[in-house]
Specification:
Length: 315
């Protein structure tokens, strides 16, 4: 059976596509090289053409040691690293962010302190833990990933559980490092609605967290299309800082159920604790669905007539 190889150019990337019988793998598939997102698009385009002679086999070179493993060990290796990253990053977020709320000379910390602290910690965590887990650090962000179909239900549940555990560990360490009176002041100032009342505070939390969810969806979509942004961590940090400035006076701008859950577990639940679950989760869900079904840009159109350079046939 004769075989035919082609070079294909797509989005500035060179691919080698082998027709049936030309390449390795079951059924004599071919080999495609290039970025993963573009390889997947090329494979989908080939399948859509319904050509019986062409079978494209997607070959991915391992990027690191964990990806080179196979089967269950590779899966477990990736997921325990992701869960550990979520645990540590959420613990650091709560420890360092809430520490910025400690009183200054007996007076409450100004709003500038938590805005800058949480923003800077987010920048650092996204850079450090983003490659391993995505650096969600927030059940509301994980819910957005679930609704946007970027995370399956079981992994999403595991993410939320380790986020709650990490936040609790981070706040416990803060309690161990600071006097009890300082920690008590932090709880009151950081987890209580302002004078607007719990219902209005929940609405503010929903609005602020919705903005964060829209940013997440936009970044995920850009990454899906191969648009890597080296400044993405700075964008998240500045967004968090701006949202805390905007809503800190009205609702404390927690934006994160795990951040409110940890002090409640260790110091007691308030009657208005629901504000910091209903608000962020509701806002995240609404914003994600809005982006997915109304605001999401269309996918990149495949090349109508890709340039092909046939090679010599081999018997």
């Amino acid at each position: 059976m004769q075989s035919q190889n082609h070079f294909k150019f797509n989005e500035g990337v060179l691919y080698v596509v082998c027709t049936e019988g030309a390449g390795p793998g079951p059924g004599g598939g071919g080999r495609v090289s290039g970025p993963r997102w573009a390889r997947s698009q090329l494979c989908r385009d080939a399948r859509a053409s319904r050509s019986p002679a062409t079978v494209i086999h997607e070959h991915t070179m391992p990027a690191n040691v964990s990806e080179s493993r196979s089967g269950v060990s590779s899966f477990l290796s990736r997921w325990w690293r992701a869960l550990l990253s979520e645990l540590v990053s959420t613990a650091l977020l709560v420890l360092l962010g809430v520490a910025s709320l400690l009183p200054v000379d007996g007076a409450p910390a100004p709003l500038t302190h938590p805005a800058l602290a949480f923003g800077c910690v987010v920048v650092a965590n996204v850079e450090a833990f983003g490659p391993s887990s995505g650096a969600h650090m927030n059940p509301a962000v994980t819910l957005a990933a679930l609704l946007d179909r970027r995370l399956a239900p079981l992994p999403a549940l595991c993410y939320v559980l380790v986020q709650l555990l990490g936040a609790t560990l981070g706040f416990a360490l803060l309690m161990a490092l600071t006097p009890d009176t300082f920690v008590g002041d932090v709880i009151v100032g950081g987890n209580a609605p302002g004078s607007v009342g719990p219902v209005a505070a929940a609405a503010v939390e929903a609005l602020l967290t919705g903005v964060l969810a829209l940013l997440c969806c936009g970044v995920w979509r850009a990454h899906e299309q191969g648009k890597e942004d080296p400044a993405v961590s700075i964008k998240f940090g500045l967004t968090i800082a701006g949202l805390i400035y905007a809503g800190g006076v009205m609702s404390s701008a927690c934006l994160n159920p795990a951040r409110s859950f940890a002090p409640a577990v260790l110091q007691g639940f308030r009657s208005d604790h629901w504000v910091y679950w209903v608000g962020p989760l509701g806002g995240s869900a609404l914003a994600t669905l809005l982006h997915r079904y109304a605001l999401r840009p269309p996918p990149l159109a495949p090349l109508a007539q890709p340039e092909e350079l046939p090679l010599n046939d081999k018997p």
